[in-house]
């Protein structure tokens, strides 16, 4: 297990990058704690896999260093970093049995045969393949082969880190949930440092202790699922986390009040003078429907019943926004305004969250 340090790290696929826009991975300086489970979350092309491949040694960074437990491993090849990596598509030895595939990393390091047999049996049970141990991998389905890849990545207990690059892409939905749960159990039992790349927020939020949200080659926030939901540090986090994502409104702020589309909205806290593009972010869960004429004028355009709750789509001065109500809530035809719960309001300047006066550090 290892603490992983990203020191002044950046990468460009161009031979002579001239500006920040030329970098697929913009400068990063972070310490990731020994033994924690992290999810790298973001849209395709945001730099997740680039960062993972730099950590594993498959890619050499254009600048900066990677340190494991404060030891510089930037120049070390993958084999010397003592990591296990599982890729998006299965990588197995087709001519070997499932048993031999799982045992290979341990045999390659001269582990005791009795321990190998015990560990292989344990991992086979974890991935649901105990009945297939003596089958050749060649005849198995793609999702079965990917389970072998996952098992082979998890079979070693002495690795510095386990790296997963969207490993559940080819797994059927029911098995995805089971394997995610098993990965979480494995982490809790053995305390490996784990990094899991995904563009699926459900995978990230259910797997990780901390979610690392990436946007345009940057890490825009590292936090727990609760922190990402309640206090998104960047408008992208508000948009990307949650379904539907955060509502954003351009606003003018004067102390404890915001002017949005001509309506005065109480913020519940004071803000100093804010420069740049100012926006108010409110998640749908904190939008209340009103029939008494108070709040911002709004018109319901449609109601979506998704089983657990209802999503109310509204038009506010030509802008579509969303509100969420309980499944059994009655939505009156007289709704003509919306009100914001002040505890759910976030203020942004040039897409970055602004702390309220007296608010503690994020």
UniProtKB/TrEMBL annotation:
SMART domains: AAA. Keywords: ATP-binding, Cell membrane, Membrane, Nucleotide-binding, Transport. One of its GO terms (cellular component) is ATP-binding cassette (ABC) transporter complex, substrate-binding subunit-containing. GO terms for molecular function: ABC-type ferric iron transporter activity; ATP binding; ATP hydrolysis activity. The keyword Transport applies. Pfam families: ABC_tran, OB_MalK. It comes from the Bacteria. Residues 4-241 form the ABC transporter domain. InterPro entries: AAA+_ATPase, ABC_transporter-like_ATP-bd, ABC_transpr_FbpC, ABC_transpr_MalK/UgpC-like, Mo/tungstate-bd_C_term_dom, NA-bd_OB-fold, OB_MalK-like, P-loop_NTPase. This is Carbohydrate ABC transporter ATP-binding protein, CUT1 family. It comes from Sedimentitalea nanhaiensis.
